[in-house]
């Protein structure tokens, strides 16, 4: 297996975006290796992957796993936002060390957290990154480290997107915030302020887009970034109404999200604290401008919203 073939190491292949990327890579004929501390247990999630033992915090094991890989997908994410500050940057440093040693290109699934309210309502890749949250500051630092590494021997690609949803999305605003109860949808919660738009990203479409970019990686500079526009709604209530339609419950009530409860829990509950930190994205519209992506790829995957939501709800056991 040589460096010119489509080979990828996926870190975080049991998670939402990492798992979706692993499936998309396999579907397009890539050879895919996955890193996990317990490969025998992780293999159940996707037996088609080549599972290898390793820890994302350990540079040596990540570098060993990345041998003969042309791409490293950095999809590692501490579950439930736990200990973000202590884990996220060291894990990325392991990936950067592996990319520098092997010449592989790092793919980082990015977010809108990099942008604060001052960025404006419609942002492109060159918009100023002045985050107002701790998590946003970490995201900016991740990209800074990748850019710095690309000035040496590493290569990197960042694809930023809105809030994830999909049948295997794991922790997500849709699953935990809008339809948090297992079983058929009886009610929908809307986290957004009335009339506020929101950016969403259907994971199968996002993963397919990322793989298409990777297949043209030789046309990219050492560091590059793209915005994935995904699904934009001018008023997030429209997204809530589409959930009702996808669930076959057009009259299910739509309630305001219980932000006061989150505020009260935040001092004692890490996930609630992280949710509270991102409240500005539900009060101020922030849309990703994807002209650059469309110029580079041409057609961008876009599953119709109700179809995407129906598939998502089925995967989340909400139908």
Automatic annotation (TrEMBL):
GO cellular component, one term: cytoplasm
Pfam families in the record: Epimerase
Signal peptide: none
Top-level taxon: Bacteria
Molecular functions per Gene Ontology: aldehyde dehydrogenase (NAD+) activity
Domain NAD-dependent epimerase/dehydratase, residue spans: 8-225
InterPro entries linked: Epimerase_deHydtase, NAD(P)-bd_dom_sf, NAD(P)-dependent_oxidoreduct
Protein name (database record): NAD-dependent epimerase/dehydratase domain-containing protein
Source organism of this protein record: Sphingomonas spermidinifaciens
């Amino acid at each position: 297996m040589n460096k010119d073939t489509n080979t990828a190491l996926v870190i975080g292949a049991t998670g939402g975006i990492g798992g979706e990327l692993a499936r998309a890579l396999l579907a397009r004929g890539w050879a895919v290796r996955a890193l996990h501390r317990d490969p025998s247990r992780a293999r159940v999630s996707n037996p088609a992957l080549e599972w290898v033992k390793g820890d994302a915090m350990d540079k040596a094991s990540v570098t060993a796993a990345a041998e003969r890989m042309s791409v490293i997908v950095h999809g590692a994410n501490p579950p439930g936002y736990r200990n973000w500050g202590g884990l996220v940057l060291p894990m990325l440093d392991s990936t950067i060390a592996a990319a520098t040693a092997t010449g592989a290109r790092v793919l980082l699934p990015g977010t809108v957290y990099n942008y604060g309210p001052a960025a404006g309502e419609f942002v492109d890749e060159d918009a100023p990154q002045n985050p107002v949250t701790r998590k946003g500051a970490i995201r900016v630092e991740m990209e800074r480290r990748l850019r710095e590494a690309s000035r040496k021997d590493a290569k990197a690609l960042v694809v930023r997107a809105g809030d994830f949803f999909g049948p295997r999305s794991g922790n997500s605003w849709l699953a935990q915030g809008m339809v948090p109860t297992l079983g058929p949808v009886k009610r929908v919660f809307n986290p957004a302020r009335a009339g506020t738009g929101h950016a969403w990203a259907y994971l199968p479409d996002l993963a397919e887009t990322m793989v298409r970019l990777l297949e043209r990686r030789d046309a990219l500079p050492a560091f590059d970034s793209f915005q994935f526009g995904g699904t934009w709604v001018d008023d997030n209530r429209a997204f809530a109404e589409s959930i009702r339609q996808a669930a076959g419950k057009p009259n299910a009530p739509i309630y305001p999200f219980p932000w006061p409860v989150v505020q009260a829990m935040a001092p004692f509950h890490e996930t609630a604290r992280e949710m509270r930190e991102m409240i500005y994205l539900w009060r101020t519209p922030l849309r990703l401008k994807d002209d650059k992506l469309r110029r580079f790829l041409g057609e961008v995957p876009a599953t119709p919203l109700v179809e995407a939501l129906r598939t998502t709800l089925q995967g989340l056991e909400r139908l």
